Amino acid sequence: MRLAFFSDIHGNLEALQAVLEDMEKRGIDRCYCLGDLVGYGPQPEEVVGKIRELGIPTIMGNYDDAIGFEKESCGCAYNPGRETRVGDESIKWSIANTSDTSKEYLRRLPHTIEFEDEGVSFLLVHGSPLEHLLEYVKPTTPPERLERLLEKAGSDVVVNGHTHLPMVRWIKGKLLFNDGSVGRPKDGDWRACYLLVDVNRGSLSYEFLRVEYDRKATIEKIAKAGLPAELSVVLALGEGYDMGSTGESNSMEFTL
What we know:
By secondary structure, the chain is α/β, with parallel strands linked by helices. It has one domain (2-255): 4-Layer Sandwich (Purple Acid Phosphatase, chain A, domain 2). The chain is 33% helix and 22% strand. It is built from eight helices and ten strands. It has helices at 13-25, 44-54, 62-68, 82-96, 100-107, 143-153, 215-225, 230-237, and strands at 2-6, 30-33, 112-117, 120-125, 157-160, 167-171, 174-178, 192-200, 203-211, 252-255. Strands 2-1-8-9-10 form a five-stranded mixed β-sheet. Strands 3-4-5-7-6 form a five-stranded mixed β-sheet, covered by helices on one side. α3 (62-68) packs across α4 (82-96) and α7 (215-225) runs antiparallel to α8 (230-237). The longest helix has 15 residues, at 82-96. The chain is globular, with a radius of gyration of 17 Å. Its EC number is 3.1.4.-. Residues 1-201 form the Calcineurin-like phosphoesterase domain. This is Phosphoesterase. Its cofactor is a divalent metal cation.
């Protein structure tokens, strides 16, 4: 069974379309979206429409919650000052440019999805098994916390998003993945990122895939919409991060 997991599109339609096209070429059996369809980017309505049109199983992210319920904050750990103002401006703009129908869809998204394939059980969550929307599970998260999260999950494999940092951790016979970000990477690589997992009779192999897309088109749309220029800078640079501690590998196999 070939599975794909992606998240944190953040209104970047060009990146989403590129990832969906790449999945089609690779013969994906099923794909799942781990939330944050909206926020930051210039096309929240179109992204929601594409996910709905394709019927992709999707869970709620903190930005989906904020836009769907028209909140003033997404609950993100912004730095005080300009970063907070940019986030708040993005939320207000996204609320104003997302239809009531799409907001209702976002409000109805579940916080988790659980399933089993080929003898391997999966839990999908945006943040963590304990704090579904807001906890940042990072490469620097202590092993003791990871053990508690995986114990709470009770599944062989947990896949989350939220941090925009691709990651894999092997903790006491269980796997924890972060699928990176389609529309707003933060690991120094501007390309859209998603996670490919092959499962066969209790064995699992994975690969983080990077997909180029038309950044220029997205950046031009950000400017045309009047969104903060910082949002374009993040897409242009991939927002630098030390990849050495993420645990990311191009490909690896596990038996669960």
